[in-house]
Design a protein that fits this description.
Blueprint (H helix, E strand, L loop, with lengths): L2 E4 L2 E8 L4 E5 L10 H7 L4 E5 L18 H14 L5 E6 L1 H12 L4 E7 L10 H18 L1 H8 L6 H6 L1 H12 L3 H12 L9 H4 L6 E6 L3 H13 L3 E6 L6 H4 L1 H16 L24
Keywords: Hydrolase
InterPro entries: AB_hydrolase_1, AB_hydrolase_fold, AB_hydrolase_sf
Protein name: Alpha/beta hydrolase
Length: 296
């Protein structure tokens, strides 16, 4: 069972295929198994690496909430790359993994060939921030009190998950069953230490404006907590593009795997061809009609 020693713990990881390294970072409700449609597709062309974050067996599950944070999630990813002797990689993250990829790009841009930040931004809107943190603590307590079966039954029916259930009941059921298998301790600690404490994407504006790594933002159009943050990231990051997948929620890589894979594949192809640069400043005219040099 391959494990990487990082930050005093060990992370379980898997590899498939060969070629340029492509790392996938999972969401809170998933683990490396939730990337299976992407592993099967991209391992035909890339060296695909998936891993379980700390708190997700068979990775180690620290019992102290101080072992979990947004900073630590990024350092774990760096540690995994060092263990695998990777100088650079393409990185793809969904939700919690999207936050990790975004912060990785901000802190270690020299290690990133490209960034895919999907389903990212939940809990960022200022007027919803207090409610978000209240929900985080309430959910963590529920996990500790009732266990993962109860948590999975609740969480998998959330307002950004019902789209998956409506479209693909069998795929959604597998997602819910895998969620129920997660560690209650690891899930509660992750909720408190990572989700509950991570900064809003709006707080990162100045840093994002300096980011020059090719970036793709992906969101479902019914993933309400992530729609506005997705638009914000697109406008703040000079090298960012935005894909919005219609009639879709949060679990977009499983809910719409073909559209998700195609968008990422097209993005990676453009990056590798040297065709994904900063936004043309002429597209930022104050006028919808006049070029910037003719706008009075």
């Amino acid at each position: 069972m391959p494990k990487a020693p990082v930050g005093g713990i060990e992370l379980y990881y898997e590899e498939a295929g060969s070629g340029y390294p492509l790392i996938f970072c999972h969401e809170f409700a998933g683990d490396l198994r939730s990337w299976e449609p992407q592993v099967r597709y991209f391992s035909r062309r890339y060296r695909v690496i998936t891993y379980n974050a700390r708190g997700y067996p068979p990775s180690d599950v620290p019992n102290d909430v101080s072992a979990y944070s947004q900073v630590q999630a990024v350092e774990d990813l760096v540690g995994l790359m060092r263990h695998l002797h990777l100088d650079r990689a393409h990185l793809v993250g969904l939700s919690m993994g999207g936050y990790a990829v975004l912060h990785f790009g901000l802190n270690y841009p020299h290690l990133a060939r490209s960034l895919v930040v999907a389903g990212c931004g939940y809990g960022s809107v200022s007027e919803d921030r207090a409610k978000f943190q209240q929900d985080v603590e309430q959910t963590a307590r529920r996990i500790e009190r009732n266990g993962m079966q109860d948590m999975a039954a609740m969480y998998s029916r959330g307002p950004t998950r019902v789209q998956f259930s409506d479209k693909d009941p069998r795929g959604w059921q597998e997602f819910a069953e895998q969620l129920a298998e997660h560690s209650a301790v690891g899930s509660a600690m992750t909720f408190r230490g990572v989700q509950g404490q991570r900064p809003s994407v709006y707080e990162l504006e100045d840093r994002m404006r300096q980011l020059n790594v090719p970036t793709l933002i992906v969101t479902g159009d019914e993933d309400e907590p992530c729609l506005e943050p997705g638009m914000f990231m697109k406008r703040a990051i000079p090298t960012a593009g935005l894909v919005v997948i219609p009639r879709s929620g949060h679990t977009i890589n499983l809910e719409e795997p073909d559209a998700f894979n195609r968008a990422i594949s097209d993005f990676l192809t453009a990056v590798e061809a040297g065709k994904w640069g900063p936004r043309n400043p002429a597209s930022l005219s104050q006028s919808a009609i006049l070029p910037p040099d003719e706008d009075p």
